[in-house]
Structure formats: C-alpha cells, structure tokens
Amino acid sequence: MSKKLEDKQRRREAEERKRDALRKAHRRRNLVTTLVAVLVAGAVVAAIVVQRNTEKTAATNYGVSEQAANCGEIQDQDVMAADHIDVGAAHEPYTTNPPTSGPHYNSPGKGPVQVGFYDDATSAPPEGVVHNLEHGMIVIYYNPDAPADVIEAIKHAVDDEPNATVATPWANIEGDANLVLTAWGEAQSCEQVSRTVVNAFRTKFQGIAGPEKLTATFKG
User: What is the pTM of this model?
Assistant: First the structure.
C-alpha cells in the first residue's frame, strides 16, 4: 500500500475513533441526564408523600389530651320543637346557648347548611345548623376570638369527619370555654380541642341524637 493510501486510511480510522468517542460521550451525557431526572422525580414524589403523611398525621392527631382540654360534663338540654321555618322568618327564641334544638330553616343550602368549617356566622347561622343537628350531625360552635391553635384544631376536627361535622362561630359562649360540641339536645363545653373528647362525643351522638337520624353513626 502506498504511503498516500496509508495516510488516508489512518485519517479515516482516526475520524472513526473520534466519532465513536463522541457517540460514547453523548450516551454518557444522556445517561447522566436521565439519572438526574429520575433522582429529581423521586425526590419530588418523596417530598409529596412526606407532606401528605405530615398533613394526615396532623389531621388525625390534632388538639391536646383529654385532661388538658378542660371540658365540662355533657349537658342534656331542654329540647324545643323541630319546626321548619322559612329563611329569615321570625321564631321564638332558642332556650339554650348555643342552640341545640328548635326552629330551623328548611331550604337547600340554608338549612341544613353544607358541612364544613365556617369563619363567618352569617353563612352558617343557628337556624341553619340546627337542621344539621336534627339530622344527627355534630355542630361545633366556637369563640371567634379563640387562640389560633384552637381554631386550627377545630378545622382538623371537621376534616377528621367531614361528612357529619359543621363548625361555626358563636360569640356568646359562656365562661372560659372556647368551643361547644353539640348534638340535638346535647352540649359539652371545652377550653381546648381534644380528639379523644370529640370522638367520644361523636360516638355517643352522631347519627343517634335528633328527630331525623339521616347521618351515619361514627365509626372512629
């Protein structure tokens, strides 16, 4: 083979080696990029799982101990007639504070009200939530000036049983209590929220108290 052909062969082989090296480098870069993407995606998924688990833990371990909640005994209330009234209609005064029975709205969205936490009493007035009580639900009346941690715990209490719980502000709570757990004709006042107390109240009255027991009983 002539020297000219040998030089050409060497150049061709050198170019092939260079192209092969570039292909290998490109594959390595793609592999690294893919690995980084997998690690990032895994980290994101892990962060989401941790956040959700943290939120779930907070929602199911809210409040303080039964002793620290400083709750009174459950009080049987004088029960008023379960009269249906039009929205805005006048009615006889409620005989308990807060109301646990008596006249109530019978209009979709007004009474019973949608379950959930309310920070505005006009959206869940007593005439509305008393209808929820009639159906066997639990209503938590709370002091709108209660400490932030108490308010937050009440929100968790609602989320813990979202199909059967209403929380609404009530400015006239008596004594040192920040909240009153109520069922039809029943009430229990507490300074703080205890999941143990709330669930015991639910077990005793949810779907059990009330003239129209349309709510499922509490399963814990």
Answer: 0.74
